[in-house]
Amino acid sequence: MTGYLLRRTGQALIVLFFVTVITLALIHVFPGGPIKAMLGPRATVAQLKIFNHEYGFDRPFYIQYLRWVNQLFHGNLGFSAKLNLSVAALIAQDLPKTIVLVLLGTIVSLVFGIPLGMYQAVKRYTTGDYVLTGVAFLGYATPTFFVGLMLVEWFAVDIHIFPPFAPQSSSLTGVLSQPQALVLPVLAYAFVLYALWSRFMRSSVMDNLVQDYVRTARAKGASERRVLWGHVFRNSLISIVTLLGLSLPSLVAGAIFIEVVFNYPGMGLAFYNAALNEDYQVLLGFTVLATVATILGNLLADIGYAMLDPRVRYN
């Protein structure tokens, strides 16, 4: 396991290198360059020259990259001139709120998706299976923003049960103090994930039900409940662990469409606004953080394989 972790760490550093190089290169794709995007179309040639020199964009690309990486190693993710705020402070302010949204939505989706996926596998090809399959396909096919808009229309406009907007507080405490305003964003996020968990769980359980160890357990007189929850359930969770690991970047990117629709002040909304305002420092910082989260998620998923499946060994 130690050797495997060292190899994966080396691979992660290589991936991180290429992603950061490509990300910094894409910043130069802004019309007129990143400085003109920051100063606006009315910036004069003299102003552009001064700021390009100040930020180092008049130097060779490898010098720009090394300077930026050195800043990252010192915990400096950049400074947003448009927000008059450091990117690290912006992330520290918005990341906890996005974590709350994604964590609650993921928990709700798992609570419903895993048991219903098992039910569909056990009761496959029945009316209940067909109905739940239709609901899952609806979750797959429906855009996230449309789910959010429909929930607002039904529960906020028509019957006035929940507010149409998410909590508007800038602090995590303020967000948690308005649980009623969190219901619709969490439900919109959970509905899309439910379709994912339920379909994969159904497929995984069906594959495990025909394995030899299930027949052996039944031949030894194990009850159906013990077979399902003591044997099949654990092995079927492997695919869910993989998906959970790969979905870790959503903690960084946030449910962007959900946050935009409900005006939820998290990282997804901040990234969306940065893209609209061409705030390259925020885009750079968020991209690096998303890359690290993606690499970490893949690594955690592989470790989860070894913990859940005794047949998996990393030599």
Protein model, in words:
The protein is mainly alpha-helical and 315 residues long. Helices cover 76% and strands 1% of the residues. It has helices at 2-27, 34-39, 45-55, 61-73, 87-122, 127-141, 144-158, 172-176, 179-209, 212-219, 224-246, 250-253, 256-261, 267-277, 280-308; strands spanning 79-80, 85-86. Strands 1-2 form a two-stranded antiparallel ribbon.
Entry keywords:
MetI-like fold, two-stranded antiparallel sheet, about 325 residues, 15 helices, mainly alpha, globular
CATH class division of the largest domain? Mainly Alpha
Instruction: Please name the CATH topology of the largest domain.
Output: MetI-like fold
Mean pLDDT, to the nearest integer, reads 84
Structural class: mainly alpha
What best-fitting shape do the alpha-carbon axes yield?
Answer: globular
* Residues in helices, as a percent range: over 70%
Q: What is the annotated CATH architecture of the largest domain?
A: Orthogonal Bundle
How many angstroms does the end-to-end distance come to?
6 Å
Helix count from the secondary structure assignment: 15
**Full CATH superfamily name of the largest domain:** MetI-like
Radius of gyration: 24 Å
Strand order of the largest sheet: 1-2
Query: H/E element string?
Result: HHHHEEHHHHHHHHHHH
Question: Which consecutive residue ranges, at least 5 long each, have pLDDT under 50?
Answer: none
